[in-house]
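Re: export button greyed out
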Amino acid sequence: MQFFGGTEISPSPPAPTASGNNAHMLYIFNRNGICLLYREWNRPLKTLSSQQDHKLMFGLLFSLKSLTAKMDPTSVEKGNLGVPQLPGQGCSFHSFRTNTYKLSFMESPSGIKIILVTHPRTGDLRDSLKYIYNLYVEYVVKNPLYSPGSPIRCELFNKTVDQYVRGLG
Amino acid sequence: MTTAKQSQVTKNARTVRMQWLMDEIVTGFEVYRSGFRFQSCLDFVFWLKNAELFTLTYGAIVRQLLTDLEEVEEVNKQLDQMGYNIGVRLVDEFLEKSNVSSCVDFKETAEVIAKVGFKMFLGVTASVSNWDSEGTTCSLILEDNPLVDFVELPDNCQGLYYCNILSGVIRGALEMVSMKTEVTWLRDMLRGDDVFELQVKLLKQVPEEYPYKDDE
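Workaround output, generated via the alternate export path:
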């Protein structure tokens, strides 16, 4: 609860650019690799068990972050590939696109990673991911019954996220 | 706090609130309030500012801990632990509202905590000083601390760090952004010093490691 500084209403969500079920999956990981949330709306092909799938996703992003920082042509200091990064160090990658899907990624300095897999023609989702982080703070972090580091079992949060994501273009 | 001190504190608080009410009437705040003002003159709780509620709640927690744990050192430790648990959650709210994107430079981090963090959650800003030569230790100076409004430490609680929750909050929050720190009080206004001084010492920065053991 915030006692000072006035009430800060969470910013209104970015306006949706198209209607319809566009998103495929959402993952939220914490800094220890624990999958806090996995939501699935449209995933016809599943090849791995959910545990393997989470590990793969986390590992992929962990390596991608390291790789993108190493390949950065504008950065002066180049750590060795595989050296763990401090929050905000190196460039931050935010999405990749294939012919069948687009994966958007956001990481907070506290290690909370939000991954959203959508239709390939989706625009820049950075603001939307920030809004989902906002929802996470409001519904999960501020919930006294939630212990940090454990999977999220908050129905209200799930519903709000579902509703918001369905409205995204 | 003893009951004599308790009632003294409550009496002081009530005096201050009466004063505040009178000030409000004199300076003439918003018109809609004036309708309620006279009606609820006796209802002090209704007009308690959020700040006072926060201060009194914190005071009640410390009082209860002193009753339950009796040992002042134990209370200090418990306040620090409570602060730590708050800090690990608070950091996400802070990061989300302040749009900070990197936590690599400890100097920058200390400034952000003092100016933005303290302002956001306590309503007051702190200043950063006393940097050591390596840039890993600094002091956060608080001249104004809402937690200690109306508080006087009685003689039997002289070892108590009343605001120890703050040291836990800072430690917990920094740990979540990969900084392991040690936070101690150097000066404490409740013990007769002129300001609150918190020393924050960066022990090490622990970047994210790949968490899964290689089992494939």
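Confidence is low (pLDDT under 50) at residues 1-10, 15-20 of chain A. The button fix ships in the next patch.
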